[in-house]
Amino acid sequence: MTDRRLAEDVRIVGSGLLGTSIGLGLAARGVDVVMDDVSPSARRLAVDYGAGREPAAGDAPGLIVVCVPPDVTASIVARELAAYPDALVTDVASVKAAPLAELRAMGADLGRYLGTHPMAGRERGGAISARADLFVGRPWVLAGHDDISYRRAGAIEDMILDLGAVPIELDVERHDRSVALVSHVPQVVSSLLAARLSEGDGAALQLAGQGLRDVTRVAGSDPALWVQILGANAPAVVDVLRPLRDDLERVIAALDAPEAPGSRRAIADALAAGNTGVARIPGKHGQDRRFSQIVVMVDDTPGELARLLTEIGEAGVNMEDLRLEHSPGAQIGLAEISVVPEAEQRLVAELEERGWTIAGAFA
Amino acid sequence: MTDRRLAEDVRIVGSGLLGTSIGLGLAARGVDVVMDDVSPSARRLAVDYGAGREPAAGDAPGLIVVCVPPDVTASIVARELAAYPDALVTDVASVKAAPLAELRAMGADLGRYLGTHPMAGRERGGAISARADLFVGRPWVLAGHDDISYRRAGAIEDMILDLGAVPIELDVERHDRSVALVSHVPQVVSSLLAARLSEGDGAALQLAGQGLRDVTRVAGSDPALWVQILGANAPAVVDVLRPLRDDLERVIAALDAPEAPGSRRAIADALAAGNTGVARIPGKHGQDRRFSQIVVMVDDTPGELARLLTEIGEAGVNMEDLRLEHSPGAQIGLAEISVVPEAEQRLVAELEERGWTIAGAFA
User: ACT domain: from which residue to which, for each copy (chains A, B) (predicted)?
Assistant: First the structure.
């Protein structure tokens, strides 16, 4: 890593959430960023936000980052490869096999192209939601193939590191299968569940708790973008949806005859498989580590939560995570604090000594 | 409400999470609570936690709260109605139509029974997870029927208010349909999705983000309890799962032929229906109000988040919600703070003045 350097003279094509965020992050590190977009008004907005400068005659970018919707990624990458014959080109689309295959079919110069995919985003898109730190600490996949040299790929990895992200190498097929599982199918499932609420009894929604809110949060995402993502990764998504559908059929059949022999077992098996699956998701900082939770009652007034966290800090304990529970109709909050198990007992004692009500503590 | 009084001489049957939490809450308000359980060791544990005293000869409870698994709720309620002919009896099972029908079939005295259901719980059960404030601010359904008088139902409502919960009246069928929609089906969907992860590529899980974590969180719940809940509310659950299955089939068919006419439209419709549904979930405090979000970069060291919240408190702004984003591999955090829209601009200005990096702000 001794020869790591900032990417220089970067051209970004597409000024949406990702393009603008990359521009902001690189510009903040002193890189000369050119921001381009098929829409002049979108481009001007991103330039106004400080994500780069307008294109000019004679621009000779060393690196081009294509940040356009998946549907047009391959054609724009091909255009940029042709227009800038000395430049390295990457893209950030959520699917990787289809664009590579399209580029290969077009006869594009794959020796100068390497697709990537930052695992970062927001439910809201556009330059207006962009932020220079969008990628900090996030995985960013390099979708490797055999036509680009190790040295050239290194320049793209440098850009990823400069933006604070964590590079992960996966080939295009493995990338697409992976994101189908951890991103695309969860999106579909969340949307299908949320869709059931669109017809539901209003009284039912009064009973909504944190569980429902969590399961449906990503259902707020942009349909136009997701139609493209799902369409471009359809085979991998269907490969996960089909067994999920089969499991769902088994649960429906069991619930149609809950007293029949085997029905309870079928339902229990589905729930137990869910336990097994959720336990495999790594925790914060990419570790599989489990934390202890401490639940503290906090008045819903300015400064109370701050006082709690100040006192946690004074106790020398680092919170791994913090969750405020919603309390419909009440002016009180519950703060669920995650700490390393070794710190749990000491922190509970310290907080109780300072007069806090500990509503629960468990590993 | 002038004649509201604390419930007196309460007998709790079942010392799990709900029974122990009710006992803790009532005992804290000076109620004489008797804690009973078919398991003497479970009962002693709840008594040790302070959730009540051991049963004694001559106990004459005015109110009995049955907190046992759904499968045995009706038979225990019937036993208690018979054993204490002057007592009012309630239960807290997650399903309400089946126990009422069973009791009616047994010829139980329904003039002294009213089922209820607190919308509170944790992924972890047992007395060890119990807390006196478990119900604070939560909806608690009174599942009304015509055999119990208004006056008697009032005593149960008083207990609910004493525990800090928000009483909501729904008849048993409407309750069961409502919880199928907002609780039971989300549990099934979350478990089915999480089950897919149990076979997934380990590399895929490295790419897991907050979206996957949210959708699968409740998949950690206890299968044994959920088998009973789903079995007891099977018809209402299936009524929601079936159209969800049909929607899923349409998405699978569309993804099987993503370029066919109508496929993109079918996928977009499913995603848009999800948008509509999620927008119907009420926000914190039962309001439909939308908040503005401000995202602030926070070093992952003790005291930093506390300092941020202290300064928010000093600015006189009340946080409506706070979310810490996980940053796998990085020692940095992003705090997403929800505030009323009127406070957004002022808070951003105050925080920037104090040197905080605002990574984003949006309504």
Answer: 293-363
